[in-house]
Amino acid sequence: MQYMFQLFADESQFAKLPEAELHQLFGAYAAYTDAIKEAGVFVAGDPLQPTTTATCVTVAADGKTNVLDGPYPDIKEQLGGYYIVEVNDLDAAISWAARCPGASHGTIEIRPIMSM
After folding, report:
1. How much is the pLDDT for 73?
2. Which of 20-24, 32-36, 73-77, 111-115 has the least mean pLDDT?
3. Distance CA 111, CA 7 (A)
4. Are 105 and 9 in contact (CB under 8 A)?
5. Which one of 51, 99, 112, 116 has the largest count of C-beta atoms within 10 Å of its C-beta?
6. What SS3 class is residue 1?
7. Quick one: pLDDT at residue 15?
8. CATH number, domain at 77?
9. pTM for this entry
10. Residue 28 pLDDT > 90, yes or no?
């Protein structure tokens, strides 16, 4: 079964990290990505650009498309990246998510992917 790990964290905290800590954190993500690839469970994954690059689209009841730059302002944590893994069950997904560096500085939401 495939699961998506959505990595949420307060991106403003990353801007405050010293360069050495940021470099160490990126190294931890690279090692984690290598580990899930070597285990054969990696399907996809990428970090996302900062929320300042986001564009939000809604369609009103009258069919008019509304486009807003930037994220919703009321959120405390932002989606910073994702992984998609293929594992046997939720317990295996939880085990892999717990090893992700994102679990130590934010929240990882695990969701099963619905087959289309």
Report:
1. 63
2. 73-77
3. 11
4. yes
5. 51
6. coil
7. 83
8. 3.30.70.1060
9. 0.87
10. yes
